[in-house]
Amino acid sequence: MPRTTSSRAGTTLTWRRAALGTALLAVATLLLPAAVGAQPAPADAPRGPTPTIEPGVRAAVERGERARVIVELTAPAPALVTGRAADAAERTLDASRTGIAEALPTADAASIQTVDGWPFVAMEVSADGLAALAARPDVRSITPNGASAPSLTQSIPLIGGDDAAALGYTGAGQTVAVLDTGVQTDHPFLAGRTVAEACFTTDNGAGIVGQCPGPDVTEATGPGTGAPCPLASKCTHGTHVAGIAVGSGVGIRGVAPEANLISIQVFSRFDAGCGTESPPCVRVTDFDLIRAFAFVYDLRDTHDIASVNLSLGGFPLPSWCDFDGRKPMIDAMRAAGIATVVASGNDGAKDGIQMPACISSTISVGATDVADNVAGFSNSAPHLAMLAPGVGTNSSVPGGGFGTKSGTSMATPHVAGAFAVLAQQHPDATVDELVGLLRGTGVPVRDGANGVVTPRLALDRATRPPTFHLREPVRVLDTRDGTGSGVAAPVGPGGWVDLDVAPATGLPVGEVTSVLVNLTAVGASTPTHLTMWGAGFPEPATSSINVLGGETRANAVVARVGPDGTVRVRNNSGSVHVVVDLFGAWDAGGDAATGLRYDAARLPVRVLDTRTGTGSGAAAPIGPGGSATFDVATACPQPGAVAAVVNLTGTGAGASTHLTVHAATSPLPGTSNLNLTPGHNVPNGVTSLIGTDGKLAVFNNAGATDAVADLQGCWYATAASPEAGRFVPADPTRVLDTRTGLGTPAVGPLVGPGGLTVEVQGNHSGVPRAGIDAVVLNVTALNAAETHHLTVAPTGLSLDEVFAVLNTSVVNYEPGRATANLVIAPVGPDGKVTLGLTQGQVDVVVDVVGWLTA
Question: Contact, 483 vs 579, CB < 8 A?
Fold first, then answer.
């Protein structure tokens, strides 16, 4: 069945314990499914007394030229609505088109092109015509109708395509649309796979010649209409691209060898304006692409269309180009579950990617060679989404044979085909979710020309994400004595330390994808925060730990590594020493991955509380140099757990000290999990091997202190299915900030007693709506009115489960400081978690750093 997408808005829910009746009513409300509503629509294009007109259009008509333009109207798109609303939208659109035609000079009006169901009009406009358009209130924007050129057996194993196919993921039932120079659909590599064809080209009688078959050289649909354009030497590109995406043959195949194909020929013949290429050449106008997009969109309920491939483009730009007239159509397809995958371009630019790849709703693709070097011709910039092989790629060419081509054009269909493969595995996933999976599991590759790191497509990892390898804790960085950094000095304001963590993991070189560490800030000179991320990747707009001046504080961090196994730790303000203890790492995934798999506890379980004797057997604090042992194995979701994840809280310390968690039957490691000072409650997430007796131990270094531990989940050597318990890192994404209203219905702190539901799936975090066991979050509490704690649980709990959760905590906070903690939280059936607070008020920030598969 065709995939559908939906969006859900967060809902704030409150309940009170003052009276039983009120509490039961409010708790029942908490357990009801969260309200469903549409997310805010993207902001309209700038509106005013006159439409937005791109400067290049004005410049052209001022030179006395007729400018090829795309006019976006303010009328609603009939294609996006149904029934009476569609009829009304069609009438509005027709009236607007008619009014424009009547207002234009005769020559301008004669050049008008329209596309059924969409508020776009193309034309060649004079200075008088532009003035007429600028005066109309029903015109939203006027942009150039640019012309783009085509962007010119070992690649499939390189991206893990063979492994994905061996698991049965071949793109079967999915469709890839190729908008290009046309495809020889009866080529042996592609025969029997085409489900629709069309042609959209331009013929202006002045050097631009339509190339569609049949009586109308500007438009044709049906069998044979998507064949290669007639300028034979310039029209091999589309067949080659299609073969990379969906080809299937003996000894050679494409990425999705059982996916279907839609072929749309969009290139016109240009008798001039070919740049360095000898005319005639082939070019595609922006408006012909819009017409092709509309054709694909209309087929969305007929075929499961995973992606549209655009191996073409114009000049590179250093930032997003969302002013491009094609963006509304690309947005509509993305909302319908269709990814628009676009080549980044072959200009060799290292500070920009070409149009339309720079539209933020596309998936832009650059090229690598078989040695995972970014090709010198491949455009690159921090906003590039993916890399894929694009050097010396062998694929089908017209005539029934095969040929080798290089370019980002060849890289792009690798990713377009990958969307078909993953859409087969995850048929209900949105484009955002599949992009998150591809980027999260891709091989990080650094472009030597600009230092930008971008994930290279790795289908084996995407279909079987990484598994976890826990090790005895080891200190890998301590700026106080130079361990790991080589320099015994604090990190200054805006400074950073690049730390090579891969060798200490024990995994083979190149096989480390993410690490689990304990990050400690020591002796900050001023309030600051530290951020850890994969070196070379863009710095995320999130934080890993917040610390006050003079304070020592730790937080567990899951961080992706850069292409050389390195993480970066950056300090925001003042100076601070940094300590990093490594606890484990995730491998490269694939079917042969040998690491541990995670199983989340449905609810957190209190397994230790020395204040009451829970777990320890004695209601007494842990003395200096003493330990408290407690059972965790029996509280794990299943028998046979190898390691456990607990939220550890130190409370009531009599002296400055640190706590260390370890397997009860193993020696004490030379690391720490959290640092305590008298009068402060401090939490931290801890992952530890379980002793042979099923227990963990908490060691206290000095003074006396109580300790509390809540079990979040456990690690196992095997899992219920090959896909279960694997980790996918996300681009760190903020999904909640009560200070700004992000992820909440209104700006303002969480007030207790009450709860706040947080949508962690979708929401541009890349976390899928299905097939996940838990999400990995960094939860920060700040601006607290009093000392208290937060709870985190899945939505959809029973009454008994709600009260059970109230006896646990994930973040213990106090006024005057920001407290962060790593949380592995199971999600409810609606893709959300609930933050709970029983009293007081506090601001909360939640960042998603990854998820674990079910």
Answer: no
- The answer on 70 and 19 residing in a single domain is no
Q: Quick check: helix, strand or coil at residue 534?
A: strand
Domain shared by 600 and 743, yes or no? no
Look up 409 and say whether it is catalytic. yes
**Average pLDDT of the chain to the nearest whole number:** 91
CATH number of the domain bearing residue 199: 3.40.50.200
- Closest alpha carbon to 780 in 850, 838, 825, 844: 844
Tell me the C-alpha distance between 853 and 464, whole Å.
Answer: 10
Same domain, 225 and 374: yes
Q: Residue 800: its pLDDT value, please?
A: 87
Residue 152 covered by a domain = no
CB neighbourhood size of 497 (10 A): 22
CB 355 within 8 A of CB 344: no
Instruction: Provide the number of structural domains found in the chain.
Output: 5
pLDDT tens readout for residues 260-319:
999 999 999 999 989 888 999 999 999 999 999 999 999 999 999 999 999 987 889 999
Question: Which residue of the set 307, 409, 485, 672 is catalytic?
Answer: 409
pLDDT at residue 807, rounded to an integer: 82
**Which residue type is seen at 498?**
D
Tell me, what's the pLDDT at 20?
A: 27
* 455 and 334 assigned to the same domain: yes
Name the token pair of 146: 């640019």
3-class SS string, 333-402: HHHCCCEEEEECCCCCCCCCEECCCCCCCCEEEEEECCCCCECCCCCCCCCCCEEEECCCEEEEECCCEE
Q: Do 807 and 661 share a structural domain?
A: no
Q: What is the DSSP track for 595-607? A: SBEEEEEEEEEEE
**Residue 574 neighbours by CB under 8 Å, 6+ apart:** 492, 493, 524, 525, 526, 527, 528, 549
Percent of the chain with pLDDT over 70: 93
Residue of 711, 686, 710, 712 whose CA lies nearest to 699: 686
Q: Return the CA Rg of the chain.
A: 29
- Burial of residue 487, with CB atoms counted within 10 A of its CB: 0-12 exposed, 13-18 middle, 19 or more buried: exposed
Considering the domain architecture, whether residues 609 and 545 belong to the same structural domain is answered as no
Is the pLDDT confidence value at 189 over 90? Answer: yes
Q: How confident is the model at residue 17 (pLDDT cuts 50, 70, 90)?
A: very low
Neighbours of 80 (CB within 10 A): 17
Residue 183 inside a domain? The answer is: yes
| Together in a domain, 305 and 186 | yes
pLDDT over 50 (residue 565): yes
What's the CA gap between 783 and 816, in Å, rounded?
A: 7
> What are the backbone angles phi and psi of residue 625, rounded to the nearest 5°?
75, 10
Angle at 484 between CA 483 and CA 487, to 5 degrees: 65
- Shared domain for 221 and 337, answered yes or no, is yes
180, 347, 447, 830: the active-site residue: 180
Separation CA 82–CA 84 (nearest Å):
7
Identify the active-site residue in 108, 155, 163, 237. Answer: 237
Which tens digits make up the pLDDT trace of 147-158?
988 765 568 888
Q: Of 406, 434, 463, which closes a domain?
A: 463
Contact partners, residue 131, CB within 8 Å, separation at least 6 = none
Neighbouring CB atoms inside 10 A of 299's CB total: 17
| Annotated catalytic residue 406 | no
Please check the confidence at residue 479 and state whether its pLDDT lies above 80: yes
Range of the domain at 175: 158-463
pTM: 0.85
Alpha carbon 545 to its chain's center: 23
The pLDDT of residue 390: 96
- Six-digit token pair at 599? 């199983």
Residue 44: what pLDDT? 39
Tokens standing for 475?
């200190």
pLDDT of residue 251: 84
